[in-house]
Design a protein that fits this description.
Elements (H helix, E strand, L loop, with lengths): L7 E6 L5 H9 L4 E7 L3 H11 L3 E3 L1 H6 L5 E4 L6 H10 L3 E4 L7 H13 L4 E3 L7 H11 L6 E8 L4 H4 L4 H4 L4 H18 L2 E9 L4 E3 L9 E3 L5 E8 L4 E7 L10 E5 L2 E5 L10 E4 L6 E2 L20 H10 L8 H20 L3 E2 L14
Parallel strand pairs: 1-2, 1-4, 2-3, 4-5, 5-6, 7-12
Antiparallel strand pairs: 7-13, 8-11, 8-17, 9-10, 11-12, 13-14, 14-15, 15-16
Helix pairs in contact: 4-5, 5-11, 6-9, 9-11
The chain binds nicotinamide-adenine-dinucleotide (NAD).
Nicotinamide-adenine-dinucleotide binds next to loops.
Length: 369
C-alpha cells in the first residue's frame, strides 16, 4: 500500500444526489479533507455542510475565492461542466469533474484548452476502472492470459433512474441517455484494457418517449426523452480488436453479461463497471471451469454492499498526480471516451462509419495491493 502524507483540501461544487457518496468515499481514502461545499442554491450547500460536518459552505464564487481549497470536485449536472470547470481551472484550482467531462466534445475541447493554458490538473470520472475489478482484468490482458485480444462485448442496461432519482431529467436530456450517462463506465473499462478506439459505427433510437417518475422524493412526475435511449455500436479498436456494444435505458431485464473480453486463448468476464470491485472470471480454452482471479489491488469497498456506490478513487488519483504521480483518470482519457460515445450518435445521424479524431494512451496500471 502506497503511503500518502500530503493533505489535500477539497471543495465540492454541487450538493445533489451523488454528493453524500463522494463525501463518504473520500473520507475512506487518505489525504483528502473536504473543507467546503458550494451549490448554485446556497441553502442546499448549507444543509449539506450541516449534514456532513463540513466547515464552510456557499456558492460557486465563494468556492473559487477560497484560498483554502486546492482541489474542486465538480458534481454539477453535465450541462454545467464546461463553464464551471473552466472557471475553476482558470482560478488555479485542480479539478476532478464527474462524467462526462463536458456535455459535448466541442465543449470538452474548451475545457481541455483551459487545463493546458494553466498549471492546474484536470481529472474526470469515471473512476471505477481504477478499482480492483478492471485493474485485475487489465493485468490479465497484459499478462496475455487470454492470448491476443480479438474482441469484447459491453451491455449497458437501464439504471432505472426514474425509480430512484428525485429529478431524472438529466438522464434523458443532453449529456444524458444510456450512451453518455452509463456508457463512460463501459468505455473506460474497454479503453483501459484494449487501448483507444479507431472507428465507430452505430444505430440508435428512442424507446418509450416519456418516462413516468416513481421515485419517492420526486420533484417531477414525468420526463420527456430528448436523447436516444437504445443504441447498438461496433467499435473497432486501434489494436484491431472489435467491440460490440449495446446501450439501453429501455432494457430493464436481460441475461446478457455486462462486459466480456475475448482472446485467442480464452475469455475474461467482468462485473458491473459501475462498481469498483467484484469477481473477474477467466476461462481458457482448455479449462473446464471458470476461475475467479485474485484481485491485483486492494478493494475499495465490500462487494455487493452500498460501499460500492461511493465515489472518490478518482479524486485520490488526481491527488496522486498533484504529488507527482501518474494521472490515470485524466482529461485526455476522458475526452477520448466521450469522443467515442458521441461518435455513436454521429454515426446514426450521418449513416456512416466515424473515424475517431482523438486517441489516448492506456492509463498506467495500478499495481499496489
Ligand atoms: N446520481 C448518480 O447516481 C450519479 C452517479 C454517477 C455520476 N453522476 C454524475 O454526477 C453529476 C451530478 O449528478 P447528481 O445526480 O448528483 O445531480 P443532481 O441534479 O442531483 O445535483 C446537482 C447539484 O448541482 C447543483 N448545481 C447545478 N448547477 C450548478 C452550478 N452552476 N454551480 C453550482 N451548483 C450547481 C444543483 O443545484 C444540484 O444541487 C453528473 O455529472 C452525473 O452524471 C451521478
Amino acid at each position: 500500500m502506497v503511503q500518502h502524507t500530503a493533505r489535500h483540501r477539497v471543495g465540492i461544487l454541487g450538493a445533489g444526489n451523488i454528493f453524500g457518496r463522494y463525501v463518504e468515499g473520500m473520507r475512506t481514502l487518505p489525504g483528502l479533507d473536504v473543507v467546503r461545499v458550494a451549490d448554485v442554491d446556497p441553502a442546499r450547500a448549507e444543509r449539506a455542510a450541516a449534514d456532513f460536518g463540513i466547515p464552510a459552505w456557499g456558492d460557486g464564487d465563494d468556492l473559487l475565492a477560497d484560498d483554502g481549497v486546492d482541489i474542486i470536485v465538480n458534481i454539477t449536472p453535465p450541462r454545467f461542466h464546461a463553464d464551471t470547470v473552466t472557471a475553476a481551472l482558470d482560478a488555479g484550482k485542480h479539478v476532478y469533474v464527474e462524467k462526462p467531462v463536458a456535455a459535448t466534445t466541442d465543449q470538452a475541447r474548451k475545457v481541455l484548452a483551459a487545463a493546458e493554458r494553466g498549471t492546474a490538473l484536470l481529472g474526470s470520472a469515471p473512476d471505477t476502472f481504477l478499482g480492483s475489478a478492471v485493474q485485475t482484468a487489465r493485468h490479465a490482458v497484459d499478462q496475455e492470459l487470454i492470448g491476443e485480444v480479438i474482441g469484447a462485448t459491453a451491455f449497458v442496461r437501464s439504471s432505472r433512474a426514474e425509480t430512484w432519482h428525485p429529478d431524472p431529467r438529466a438522464f434523458y436530456g443532453p449529456g444524458g441517455g444510456p450512451v453518455l450517462d452509463m456508457g463512460p463506465y463501459y468505455l473506460a473499462t474497454l479503453v483501459n484494457c484494449l487501448g483507444p478506439v479507431a472507428q465507430v459505427s452505430a444505430a440508435t433510437r428512442v424507446g418509450a418517449p416519456t418516462r413516468k417518475v416513481t421515485s419517492p422524493e420526486r420533484v417531477v412526475d414525468e420526463v420527456t426523452v430528448e436523447v436516444p435511449t437504445h443504441a447498438s455500436a461496433t467499435l473497432t479498436f486501434a489494436s484491431g480488436a472489435l467491440g460490440t456494444a449495446l446501450f439501453s435505458f429501455d432494457v430493464w431485464d436481460t441475461e446478457l453479461p455486462r462486459i466480456e473480453i475475448y482472446g485467442t486463448e480464452g475469455t475474461l468476464a467482468l462485473p458491473n463497471p459501475n462498481f469498483f470491485d467484484g469477481d473477474v472470471r477467466l476461462k481458457r480454452h482448455q479449462d473446464t471451469e471458470w476461475q475467479v482471479l485474485t484481485p491485483v489491488t486492494e478493494l475499495f469497498g465490500a462487494v455487493g454492499s452500498p460501499e460500492q456506490h461511493r465515489r472518490g478513487l478518482g479524486v485520490r488519483d488526481l491527488a496522486n498526480a498533484v504529488e507527482g504521480g501518474p494521472l490515470r483518470a485524466g482529461a485526455e482519457f476522458a475526452f477520448h471516451t466521450l469522443d467515442v460515445l458521441e461518435s455513436i450518435q454521429t454515426s446514426q445521424q450521418q449513416k456512416r462509419f466515424v473515424t475517431l479524431g482523438s486517441s489516448c494512451e492506456r492509463p498506467a496500471p495500478r499495481t499496489s495491493r
